[in-house]
Design brief:
- By secondary structure, the protein is an all-alpha fold.
- It has a domain of 251 residues: Proton glutamate symport protein, CATH 1.10.3860.10.
- 76% of the residues lie in helices and 0% in strands.
- Helix 2 runs parallel beside helix 10, helix 3 packs parallel to helix 8 and helix 16 packs across helix 19.
- It is globular, with a radius of gyration of 22 Å.
- It is a multi-pass membrane protein.
- GO terms for molecular function: L-cystine transmembrane transporter activity; symporter activity.
- Keywords: Amino-acid transport, Membrane, Transmembrane, Transmembrane helix, Transport.
């Protein structure tokens, strides 16, 4: 009966958001209202029942139909969107001969900012005097540590991880079956694009038919994206209610220093993103204003892949980034050079854990080694999947540090992961914007347009 009442409350709030939509309240405002309502609902549920109660567990199972269902719909459309957008970029002649330069710039920016992120993470961990030996391990933390130790056997060499990027079966990759599927789809679409350019030179009539077909499919896919994005306020409401309702605030308090140090590092890296935008000759204020909704969704959903459609639409519609560049930046950013998960997090863990095995974390040689390994292994994450967890395993294993100690942070992992995911998405958008600025392909009028185009509109 209690679960039914909680579900009815959620439904009433969803109806209220629908009412705001009919009253033509701006999309961005409805997203923010959904966020606030979700936080309030989650707090009320936790205060009444407790984070680990059976009532919360049963209620969250029903809330997930809306929250997790929404994220899955975004993931559903991500692969078709990446594929057709890359292909469409060739028919619009926005890639072509610049493909190598564009891909190289994006990778350079992603990996470069990851190395900088590692340096920031090291600095934050040092300033806050973080030390893994000071943390108390309970049963859950020990089990998590043992699980991480087992996963070290899944880590492959860098050459093997790079080989995994290539699409042996593109149709399998279109299903998102592998951790590197997104990049594999980009590669397959690029091959088709170059093939199309050959057809243009040899058979103009056939190329026109192909172009019309690609444009038709592109319109269909973008229609699906628009429909799904209109559900964002409802999805965020359910996701935040679940997140806040199940958060262990006691554990967060006990590990407060690590949480604060993590967010200080994440905020500093975000400020660096803004400086990169500024050095590109663009306004960081406009970037914050226009990227806000997408970063908010990434923060609440903790899903870089789920954020991809919003990421791409924001780059193209609000920042004036060409389709092809936006898709390369967004797709590569899912697996390579993640500033939060593959940069800040593993670097902080390395500095925390080093003293437990007698290593001085302030040794310049050790610090340089950590930054180098973090930057290189940010490619490796793509080969094994698992985001921050596998990034940490790869880095700690390469440094010969005990992986199990990372298990102590299991209780605050969701809270930190929210900030990490938002930073990952910001990093990929900055890579797309900066690359299009360097190549001279950004539409400055769109970027500087003060009117926010609703992401839920066609």
């Amino acid at each position: 009966m209690i679960t039914i009442i909680n579900v009815i409350i959620l439904l009433i709030l969803l109806v209220f958001l629908r009412y705001l939509n009919k009253k033509h309240v701006k999309f961005s405002n409805r997203v923010f209202i959904g966020l606030l309502l979700g936080i309030v609902l989650g707090l009320v549920l936790q205060l009444i029942y407790g984070a680990t109660s059976e009532e919360i567990t049963n209620t969250v199972a029903w809330y997930n139909i809306i929250g997790t269902g929404y994220v899955k719909l975004l993931q559903m459309v991500a692969m078709p969107l990446v594929f057709i957008s890359i292909l469409s970029a060739f028919t619009k002649l926005t890639l072509g001969n610049n493909l190598g330069k564009i891909a190289g710039l994006i990778l350079l920016i992603l990996v470069g900012t990851t190395a900088i992120s590692a340096g920031v993470g090291i600095t934050s961990a040092t300033l806050f005097n973080l030390n893994a030996s000071q943390l108390v391990q309970g049963e859950a933390e020990k089990e998590r540590g043992a699980s991480l130790e087992e996963k070290t056997t899944e880590v492959t060499s860098l050459p093997e991880q790079i080989i995994e990027l290539f699409p042996a079966n593109p149709f399998l990759d279109l299903t998102g079956a592998r951790s590197t599927s997104t990049i594999a789809v980009v590669i397959f679409a690029a091959f088709l694009g170059f093939s199309y350019l050959r057809v243009v030179r040899k058979d103009e009539e056939t190329s026109k038919m192909i172009k019309k077909g690609i444009e038709a499919i592109y319109s269909l896919v973008m229609g699906i994206v628009t429909i799904v994005l209109r559900l964002t306020p409802y999805g965020i409401l359910a996701i935040m209610a679940r997140t806040v309702g199940t958060s262990d605030f006691g554990a967060i308090y006990n590990l407060g220093k690590f949480v604060i140090a993590s967010y200080v590092a994440l905020i500093v890296v975000f400020i660096i993103h803004l400086l990169i935008i500024l050095l590109s000759g663009l306004s960081p204020i406009i970037y914050m204003k226009k990227a806000g909704e997408t970063l908010l969704f990434a923060f609440t959903s903790r899903s870089s892949a789920g954020s991809l459609p919003l990421n791409l639409k924001t780059q193209v519609d609000r920042f004036g980034v060409p389709d092809g560049i936006a898709n390369f930046a967004g797709s590569f950013g899912l697996s390579i050079g993640q500033n939060g998960c593959a940069g800040v997090y593993p670097a902080m863990l390395a500095i925390m854990i080093a003293p437990t095995v007698g290593i001085n974390p302030l040794n310049p040689t050790f610090i340089i080694t950590v930054i180098f390994i973090v930057a290189i292994s940010s490619f490796g994450v793509a080969g094994v999947g698992g985001g921050a967890t596998f990034a940490a395993i790869i880095v700690l294993s390469a440094l010969d540090l005990p992986v199990a100690l990372a298990g102590v942070l299991i209780s605050v992992e969701p809270l930190i992961d929210m900030g990490r995911t938002a930073l990952n998405v910001s990093g990929s958008m900055v890579a797309g914007i900066t690359t299009s600025r360097i190549t001279g392909e950004i539409n400055k009028e769109v970027y500087h347009d003060p009117i926010l185009k609703d992401l839920g509109e066609t």
